[in-house]
């Protein structure tokens, strides 16, 4: 899932701090997810989907 999050960030041309702000989480939380230290919580998945409703949830969580 972290690869898909990075893909969304790259597609939207957003840095870690800007993407984190857009989805309502802290940049350090996002950085830990991207580095594989933490799995995204359900709240993070929901926040991404809320910010980007066109993204298919199945694609995001696969």
Description:
InterPro entries: Cro/C1-type_HTH, Lambda_DNA-bd_dom_sf. It is a single chain. By secondary structure, the chain is mainly α. It has one domain (2-61): 434 Repressor (Amino-terminal Domain). It has five helices and no strands. The chain has helices at 2-12, 16-23, 27-34, 42-51, 57-61. α2 (16-23) packs across α3 (27-34). The chain is globular. The termini are close together. 13% of the residues are buried. The model has no long low-confidence stretch (mean pLDDT 96).
Segments where pLDDT lies below 50 for 5+ residues? none
For the CA atoms, what is the radius of gyration?
Answer: 10 Å
Strand and helix order: HHHHH
In round numbers, the mean pLDDT is 96
Determine and state the CATH class: Mainly Alpha
Quote the CATH topology.
Answer: 434 Repressor (Amino-terminal Domain)
Helix content: 55-70%
How much β-strand is present in the residues? under 5%
Class from helix and strand fractions: mainly alpha
Using the alpha-carbon principal axes, give the shape: globular
Instruction: Count up the helices.
Output: 5
CATH architecture heading: Orthogonal Bundle
Distance between the termini: 6 Å
Present the secondary structure layout:
Elements: H1 2-12, H2 16-23, H3 27-34, H4 42-51, H5 57-61
Helix pairs in contact: 2-3
The gist of it:
The chain has 5 helices and no strands. The chain has 62 residues and is mainly alpha-helical. It has one domain: Orthogonal Bundle (434 Repressor (Amino-terminal Domain)).
